[in-house]
Amino acid sequence: MLIEVKVPELAESVAEATLVKWLKQPGEIVKQDENLVEIETDKVMLEVAAPESGLLKEVTKSDSEMVLSNEVIAVIDTEGTATAVVSPQENKETVAPVAATTAEHTIEPAVSAPVSAPVSAPSLAPAEPEAPKLSPAVRKMLEENRLEPTQIKPTANPGRITKDDVLRYLQSNRETQQSAKTPASLKQAAPQAPAHQPLAVARGEKRIPMTPLRKRIAQRLLSAQHENAILTTFNEVNMQPVMGLRKRYRDKFEETHGVRLGFMSFFVMAAVLALKRFSLVNASIDGTDVIQYGYYDIGIAVSSPRGLVVPVLRDVDKLSMAGMEKAIRDFGRKAKSNQLSIEDLTGGTFTITNGGVFGSLLSTPILNPPQSAILGMHKIQDRPMAENGQVVIRPMMYLALSYDHRIIDGKEAVQFLVTVKEQIEDPSRLLLQI
Description:
This protein is 34% helix and 24% strand. By secondary structure, it is of the alpha+beta class. Strands 11, 14, 17, 18, 19, 20 and 21 form a 7-stranded mixed β-sheet that branches. The longest helix is centred in the N-terminal third of the chain and has 20 residues, at 88-107.
């Protein structure tokens, strides 16, 4: 029975993805739920698992090719075995002994037939090897460079020519032609920086293609700046009350809930209370309409090996501090191991980013469209502050709120930030919701 392997359902905002690498090759036996291929979108890295156990009979997309949602990329034969797929070379070696055996039986004369002349064995032509499979992208490259498939030697898979095989062949041809044109005297000299080589390349410059994630980040940042009237308002918050509360109950909190008490849950709770008071901050623009959300899905910006990603905490107003801390911890682990799903990264009505973990003292965060505002946290730094007519040292943090001035007035933005400041400087207000 043949089973199709398809690209997972992608989010509406994700038009296509890149097939990064096949973890299994045609002809190999795969087990159910075993990872077959890695696919990268502009949001997340996905691993597609085998839906059934069997023989990986065919793959229809090569490494680095673009794929679409629900597109068939491979076929699994649930009744196949590892010997069902034979390479062209193995096929030749198998055919030859069969031909010889057939010849021996053919040239043996019948007992009653007179032998008048030597009988030669009929020639049996060896089977033609199966033509290598070509993806649309590879076929286009061959046509553009006027190449025949027989000129290219497959490397990764004997039965399939990849884009890397074609590029390797073209590069080899260029080097051969260049070598033929170069005089023998120049070949012996072997200068470190040839005259035809650009100076920047000779000094160590290299060109690296953007990853799909980085391309998407660049597009979204430009789009956010071009399509929104972004303004940023600042304030500062005394972190001593939260730090004292955290120090007092940190061990007991971890013992009770199995997770550490961080600063982020305090800011998430403060932001939700402020969003309830100023609903336009929890809104977005759709054409000429303003959409106000009656729920609170907060995006938490976290760092991953592939760049900055923003997983979303759903219905935050219904979560406890322990629930928030556990969800944030799990997002951090998933981000480091590239295990965030598209669902984790889709949606959100408001975003919080903490540049302070990297040492940022002050910055202006950029909106995460279509959201209308983003809160930026920064490094906690001891600074002299005036309290009751005296100078005291306090652990202070700058806060920044970037917002879309088309729907949020400066007054609302400032009051929103002041509300967050008041909650953090008096954490008991978070408990009392005042």
